[in-house]
Amino acid sequence: MKIFHSIKKFIDSEVKIDSFIPTMGNLHDGHLSLITESKKHSEKSCVSIYINGDQFTDVKDFENYPKTIEEDIKKLEKIKVNYLLIPDKNDIENFSKPFDINLEPKKITNDMCGKYRPGHFLAVMDIMHRFIQIVKPKNIILGEKDYQQVMVIKELINIYNYDISVITSPTVRNKNGLALSSRNNFLLDNEEKFACDIYYALLSAKIMFENNIPVEEIIDNVNKLFINSHVNIEYFTIRDVKTLQHSYDNDLIALIAGHLGEVRLIDNMIIKSSHNNK
Ligand code: AMP
How far is residue 106's CA from residue 39's CA, in Å, rounded to a whole number? Predict the structure, then answer.
């Protein structure tokens, strides 16, 4: 695996990247599943590890974000990634143009997670726009766990008319259903089982939908499930899979965010699929 710390060296080497896998490091099996997915579509994969301070709403969250670069490199070498980019902020900014904030698709960026994390998705669009200019990938591989982020990045690609395919990979969970996340490191042992309420809520929503309970009633019922939970619910909603709007005629996804102590958790689940594969 070739590691680049310098964007100039990366660009000068003229490597051709098929698939790009952006991450913030502290790699777990969820991240590694994206690399496995990328190998199905590409010869040359490039992973980035960059903690984008601008997309954090809370300075403490940014400062405390887990950094495990040595272990990450070992994992990426083991899984045989071709290129790893570990750039710094100035270097990225010197070699790319910013996202034009006038083009922000606020209908999607100010909704759900964006409503509770102002500026978050604008910063995501900015960093992805910059990485796209530098890496010039054919594909970007993203986790379905961050479903709204996937939709935001698809929107970015549409806005700039980039010739890039977004390939998504299913959420990797632990044996109790909790979606793997770098922030799970901050859960205490007993909190991990409380965090599973998030997954159970999504499963209950799916079962309720299969039992023909109307969407509004499902939302009410799921919110009630959290009255006695340790998880402090931020939002639970059901949306159209393709538009993320409140329209319930086509395939549907349930999305949730909540806090367990200091830890913010998000998850989602397709609850109605015409492909019948979820
Ligand atoms: P992050 O390092 O949190 O920015 O995540 C980098 C990429 O890994 C994003 O595309 C995430 O959606 C994806 N990812 C994070 N957790 C998981 C998971 N549990 N399963 C699948 N993909 C994940």
Answer: 34
**Shortest-distance atom of ligand 1 to CA 34:** 22
Tell me the per-residue pLDDT of 6-19, one tens digit each, with 9 for 90 and over.
999 999 999 999 99
Q: Distance of CA 138 to CAs 14, 32, 44, 92, 123, Å?
A: 15, 19, 10, 20, 22
Mean pLDDT of 148-156: 98
What letters, b where the CB count within 10 A reaches 16 and e where it falls short, cover 55-67? bbeeeeeeeebee
Residue located nearest, by CA, to atom 7 of ligand 1: 23
Residue whose structure tokens are 């990450």: 72
What is the distance in A from the centroid of ligand 1 to the CA of 185?
A: 14
What pLDDT, in 10s, does the model give residues 165-209? 999 999 999 999 999 999 999 998 889 999 999 999 999 999 999
- Provide the edge-to-edge strand list for the sheet that holds 83-85: 2-4, 83-85, 45-49, 19-23, 139-143, 165-169
Calculate the CA dihedral of residues 61, 26, 134, 159 and round it to 10 degrees. Answer: -60
Whole-structure pTM value: 0.97
User: How far is CA 71 from each of CA 2, 78, 200, 240, rounded to the nearest angstrom?
Assistant: 16, 11, 32, 39
Q: Is the pLDDT of residue 277 over 80?
A: no
